[in-house]
Amino acid sequence: VSSPSESRAANIIPLRRSQASDADLVGAVARGDERALAQVWERYVREVRISIRSSLGPDPAVDDLVQEVFLAFYRGASRMQNPRALRAYLLGAAMRLTAFEIRTRRRRFRRLRLTQRGSLPEIVVEATTESSDALATLREVLLRVRELPRMAFELRYLFDLSPSQVALALEVSEATARRAITEGRARVLELSRREPALAPYLRSLPEEAP
Amino acid sequence: LNDEAAAQTLARLLREDGTASHAGAEEDPELSRLLGTIAVLREQPRRRSHRWLWGAAAALVGLVAAWTIFARSLRRNLTYEVHGVARIEDRRVSAESSEPAEIRFSDGSTFELLPGARLSVDGSTPDGSSLSLLDGQARASVVHRSRTHWSLLAGPFEIVVVGTRFHTLWDAAHQRLRVDMEEGAVEVRGASLGEPVAVRAGQRLEAGTTRSDWRITPLPTDAADRAGATSAEPPATPSWSAPERPAPTHSTERTSTAPPAASVSWAELMTRSEFETIVTQADALGLESCFATCSPANLRVLADAARYTGRFELAERSLLALRKRSPAHAAPAAFFLARLYEARGRHQDALRMYKQNLTESPHGDYAEEAMASRMALLVRVGEPAAARVAADAYLLEFPRGTHVPIARRIIADAPAP
C-alpha cells in the first residue's frame, strides 16, 4: 500500500520548462507538482508584483501579497475553469487582493483618525527610494478612482489584456469590463491632467476636443 | 485615440517601476518561502472548512430575526365595528332603548349590548381590549387564544376574561353587578369581593358594592328564566331588589324577603333565593322519603339549597341520591359532589368524584371544568406527577381551553417523568 505522498509523487509529471503551456502547468500544479508551481512563479511573478506595486508602491506588504496570490493559485488550481487564462487569473487575483488590502487600510485609517494622535497615513504610496514624483502622483491618482474601473484600467493598459480577458480576470461580464475600462481611463486621465507632475507625460498628447 | 495613447503612456510609467530586479527562480528567496509554506500546509491535515455551516447559521439567525420583526408588525391592536342602531360618541357606544347593538372585534369576539345599555371601549391591544360597561346588559363572547386578555369594568368591578361566553348586567342606579357564565370562566375583582372570585360555567355571580354583598348561585335551570336572561328584551326590574334588601353578612346566609311560596316549585323558589324554604319543605316531606320519591330536578335543587344554607351533609346525601336514582344526572351530580368535597377539604373524595364525572361523561358539560379542577387539586395535594398527567390530558382534550395556561404551568413546574 502506497503512502499518500508516494501516490502524489506518482501523479507528478516532469515538465520541460520552456515548452509547458499554461494549461499544462495548471494541470500539474493541480496534481501537486511543486516544480510546475515554480515555473508558474518564474513566468508570472514579475507581472504580479507590478500589479501590486502599481497601487501600493514599494510597500513592505507587496511580498506578502505576492505570496498570497500564488498560494491561492496553488489551492485553487484544480478548480480553475479555464486553465489557459492563467495570466488573467493571476493578475485578477493580485488586483483583488490589493484592493482588499487598500480597503482594510482605509477602514483602519478612518478609525485611527478618530484618536487624539491625529492621522496615520498607512497607505505608503511614496517610499524613500522613490525616484519619480510622477510615479508617486500617478499612484495617488489611481487610488482616487473607483475600485472596479481602476483595476480594469490597470489590466487593460498596464498588462495589455483584452476586454474579454479583463472580464475573466475580474469575474464580471464583458460588457461590464468594457464599461469599467472606459470609466477607468476617463477618470485616470481627468485626474492626471490636473496634476503638474504628470504634465510632461501628457503634454505631447493634446486633449481631445469635447 | 489620444486618450488611448495617454493611458498607455501612464501605464508605461507604472510598468517601468516594476522592472526592479528580482532573482531567478532557483535563487528567489520569495519562491523558497512559497514552497516552504506549501510544504507546511501539506504536512498539516487540511481542516474541513465549516464556513458553509457558519453561513447557514448566520442565514438562519437572520431569517428568524426577519420573521420576528415581520410577525410583530402583523400583531396589530384589535379593531372593532359597531353593528345595529347605536349612538357612538368617541369610544362610547350606547344601544338605543328599543334596539340592541353589537360590537364586533377583529379577532371575532363580540359584545352584544341589549337595548339601553352603554359601553365604552377604553383601549385595545393585539391580545384583547379594555371595556367599561357603564350601564345595562351586555352579552360577551370572547374568542380564546393563547395570550388573550380582556377586561370588562362594571362600576367598581373588573371582570377579567380569557375566553368565554357570559352575560353581564351592571345596574348603575343600584350599583349591582350580575354575571351569568355560559361557557368557560372569568375572574371578578373589586368592591364587595375582597379577593378575586372565579365564576365558572353554569354559575351566576351577583354582587353589590357593600362589603361581602355577593353570592354565587347556579344559573337558573328554568328555561324561561334563562331565555329571559339572554333575551334582547331587558327585564322590567333586576332579579334582585337591592338596595331595599338588607345586605347579607354572608353569601350563603341570605334571608329572603319574598313571600312564602308553598304553592311554587322548588326551581322557582331557587330563582327567588329561598333556599331555606326549600330545605324546610324537604324536611317536612321527610328526607328519606324525598330521596326516594322527589324528582331528579328537585333533588338537584335541594342539593344546591342545602349547600347555600350550609347543610353540607344534606347536600351530599341529595347528590348521592340523585346519582343513585337517575343515571342521566349521575355525572353532573358527581361533579357537584366533587366541588362540595373540595370546598370541605375532603380532597381525596373530591378527586375520586372528579374522576367519576370524567369516567361517566368524558365529553359532558362539566368535563372541562372537572379536568381543570382535578389537575389543580392534584397539585394542591402534592401529587405533581399525577397533576402533570392530568394537565397533559387536559391539553390533549381542550387544546384551546380556558385553563390551558394553568395546564402548561403545571407541566412546566412538574418534575420530568
SSE layout and pairings?
The complex is a heterodimer of chains A (210) and B (417).
Chain A: H1 4-11, H2 22-30, H3 34-56, H4 61-76, H5 86-113, H6 133-143, H7 147-158, H8 163-170, H9 174-192, H10 199-203
Helix pairs in contact in A: 2-3, 3-4, 3-5, 4-5, 5-8, 7-8, 7-9, 8-9
Chain B: H1 2-17, H2 29-43, H3 51-74, E1 80-84, E2 86-89, E3 92-95, E4 101-105, E5 110-113, E6 118-125, E7 128-142, E8 150-154, E9 157-161, E10 164-171, E11 176-183, E12 185-189, E13 197-200, E14 203-207, E15 214-218, H4 223-230, H5 266-271, H6 275-285, H7 287-293, H8 296-308, H9 312-325, H10 327-343, H11 347-360, H12 367-380, H13 384-397, H14 404-413
Helix pairs in contact in B: 6-8, 8-9, 9-10, 10-11, 11-12, 12-13, 13-14
Question: Could you explain the architecture of this structure?
Answer:
The complex is a heterodimer of chains A (210) and B (417). Chain A is an all-alpha fold. Chain A is 66% helix and 0% strand. Chain A has helices spanning 4-11, 22-30, 34-56, 61-76, 86-113, 133-143, 147-158, 163-170, 174-192, 199-203. In chain A, helix 2 (22-30) crosses helix 3 (34-56), helix 3 (34-56) packs across helix 4 (61-76) and helix 5 packs across helix 8. The radius of gyration of chain A is 20 Å and the shape is globular. The termini of chain A are far apart. Chain B is α+β, with helices and mostly antiparallel strands and 417 residues long. Chain B has a 15-stranded mixed β-sheet that branches. Chain B contains 14 helices and 15 strands. Chain B is elongated, with a radius of gyration of 36 Å. In chain B, helix 10 (327-343) packs antiparallel against helix 11 (347-360) and helix 11 runs antiparallel to helix 12. Chain B has helices spanning 2-17, 29-43, 51-74, 223-230, 266-271, 275-285, 287-293, 296-308, 312-325, 327-343, 347-360, 367-380, 384-397, 404-413; strands spanning 80-84, 86-89, 92-95, 101-105, 110-113, 118-125, 128-142, 150-154, 157-161, 164-171, 176-183, 185-189, 197-200, 203-207, 214-218. The chains are: A mainly alpha (210), B alpha+beta (417). The interface between A and B is medium-sized, with 41 and 28 residues.
